[in-house]
Each structure stands twice: as structure tokens, then as C-alpha cells.
Amino acid sequence: MDKNRLLPTGKWMFLANTIAVVCLTVGFPVIATAADGSIPPTRIRFAVSAGYRVPDSALRATLSAQAEGTDPASLAAQVNRTMSWAVTRVIPTVPGLHWHTDTYMTVRTGVKTAPWRVQESMVVRSNDPSTLLPILGTLQSRLQLEGIDFTPAPGELRKAQNHASAIALQRFRS
């Protein structure tokens, strides 16, 4: 029998080498684990969920101040004065309002007469909509109202999440 006929050649040589590499990369970790006697732990993943409806009881309004012109620094100062008026003079007059700034940007407009735009937005929220609604008129005298939406109150949302978690755990145990 001819010894050369037993050795793989050409594409069969490539296939033989590929099989050897696959066996080493796939088989070696299994052999190494079996050799030291440790068996990897079994992992089981599961998920249980529970839904809970939370009524929308808080009112959230998004407002913005905007200025356009040729000097970005003076535009920024103008926007900052407007926002300062809102957060130091108007919002503190109503107890229970919560606010935070949302976005601030300075952008080129591409318009020759007003090449710059500076804009800042803020979100004002109240768990009692009857306290926020009247003050929105005052804020709109200098700010643009971008939107109003009702959302669940944060405290009520936390309670609902805790309740849903308890229900999910109870379902898992039963």
C-alpha cells in the first residue's frame, strides 16, 4: 500500500486542518475541566412579571426660553435672565412645584440676519395639577410652552412597582 495515498492533500488537507483546530478549540476546555475534576455550575434563568396600573395624577409641563441673533454670548445672557426669572420669582410662589432644567443648546441657524439660536428648556411638575395650571399663564408671558402631560406621581409609581414586585414573587413561589 502506498503511504502517500493515506495522507490528505489539497482541499482535503485544509479540511483536516480545520477539523483539528475545531476539535482543539471546542474540545480542549471540556477536557481541561474534566481533568481538574471541577464541573461548571448549572445556570438557570427565569423571569416572572406582574403589571399594575397607576393613575396619572401628576402634571408635567415643559417650557423653554429662546433667543436668536448675531451674538451668541448676549443671546445666552438673555435666555439665562428669562430662566432665572422663572425659577427665582415665579415658581417659588407656589408650594409643591418641582422643576429641573432639561436641555440647553447654542446652534447656528444658517440665517444671515439671525445666525445663532440659544435655547434652554425646563420641566415643572406638580402632584396637584390645580397648583400648576394657574401659574402656567404667568410662565407663558416669557417662556414658550412646549407641552403638558399627565404622569403617575413618583411616590405612587414607587408603590406600584413595589406592589408588582411582591405579586411577581408570590406568583413565583406558588
Protein described:
It is a single chain. With 174 residues, the protein is α+β, with helices and mostly antiparallel strands. It has a domain of 96 residues: Alpha-Beta Plaits, CATH 3.30.70.360. Helices cover 44% and strands 25% of the residues. The protein contains four helices and four strands, in the order αβαββαβα. A four-stranded antiparallel beta sheet has the order 2-3-1-4. The longest helix has 26 residues. It is elongated, with a radius of gyration of 33 Å. About 13% of the residues have low confidence.
Write the layout of secondary structure elements.
Layout: H1 11-36, E1 58-69, H2 72-90, E2 97-108, E3 116-126, H3 129-139, E4 144-151, H4 154-173
Descriptive terms for the model:
174 residues; transmembrane; Alpha-Beta Plaits; 25% strand; alpha+beta; four-stranded antiparallel beta sheet; 4 strands; 4 helices; DUF541 domain-containing protein
One letter per element, helices H and strands E, the order comes to HEHEEHEH
Q: How big is the Rg?
A: 33 Å
CATH class of the domain at 58-153: Alpha Beta
Residue-averaged pLDDT, rounded? 82
In percent, how helical is the residue content? 40-55%
Number of H/I helices: 4
Q: How far from one another are the termini?
A: 71 Å
Helix/strand-derived category reads alpha+beta
Uncertain regions spanning at least 5 consecutive residues: 6-27
The beta-strand count equals 4
Strand content: 15-25%
**Overall outline:** elongated
| Cross-sheet strand order for the largest sheet | 2-3-1-4
Q: Provide the CATH topology of the domain at 58-153.
A: Alpha-Beta Plaits
Major sheet characteristics: 4 strands, antiparallel
| Gross CATH architecture of the domain at 58-153 | 2-Layer Sandwich
